[in-house]
Amino acid sequence: MHSNQSAESAFVFTANQKVVSLLVQEAGFQSAQASALDALADILGLYLERLLAITHSYADLANRSRPNTHDLAHSLADQGVALASLQQYVERFKNTPMAKAASSTTLRTEQSQTSTVEYIPQFLPSEDEDEDEDLEETTELPTYVPPHLPRFPSKHSFRQTPVYIQRPDDPQKVRELNSQQSRTVEENLKRLMSSENQLARRSTEKRSANGYDEEDEDAVAASMMMMPIVNYESAMQRRKRVAKQPEYGNDIRNQEASKRAKSNVGTVQS
């Protein structure tokens, strides 16, 4: 770890020395002592570090992870460097022999063949989309979309479509569906009761371990062995019969009331 840091610092220090030597030569000096170049290289490194730190501070203040040219302009203004004077210096430096020699040498750049863009699988097309619309999705992106952005998702992922629930019209199918739902409810209730029985059995085992009578344990164990029978359909039929009973009672009461009324009418006439 220390070796990497020392290598990086040595590389940066060497680069600063080269920059300082060019600036000294541009200023008109023919030669310079090594100690003076080292001191100027250290000062240049500290200046650049401070400039970059201020630039990152402006980026953090704007809630950005990377600084931009505006952050650099603000940091240069804090250091007392005007952009107009910097532009004049660049224009003047272009006409120097060093700038012409540097511009004559071209750097070779190799473009990587492997793409760094993450592969995104093709989205499933929606059922209500036509083939022409699917083809439009796979074509080139519009001109205002940067090329590094992924393709648009399928339209079914953001399009709002109404949902119509299809119910059977055949009475036989309706009865079969109702019976199936009743069996499902009955099975769910059985599972619920079985889980409750398991919890109760565990509690009885803990109670027996704590020292209860054997008779109590036998009674509780026998009660736990009895699986409660849940019949959802019979319960529904029982409810229907109970609901019909008041209507039958009301008919009997109405008949008795009519008989009493007739008898009262007969006594009055007599």
Automatic annotation (TrEMBL):
Compartments it resides in: Nucleus
Superkingdom as given in the UniProt entry: Eukaryota
Residue span, Bromodomain associated domain: 9-85
Annotated region (Disordered), positions in chain: 124-157, 192-215, 236-270
Biased segments, Acidic residues type: 126-139
CDD domains noted in UniProt: TAF8
Chief localization: nucleus
This protein's record includes keyword Zinc: no
GO biological process: transcription initiation at RNA polymerase II promoter
Keywords attached to this entry: Nucleus, Transcription, Transcription regulation
GO cellular component terms, semicolon-separated: transcription factor TFIID complex
Record bears the keyword Transcription: yes
Example of a GO MF term: protein heterodimerization activity
Family membership: Belongs to the TAF8 family.
Protein name: Transcription initiation factor TFIID subunit 8
Species assigned in the record: Apophysomyces ossiformis
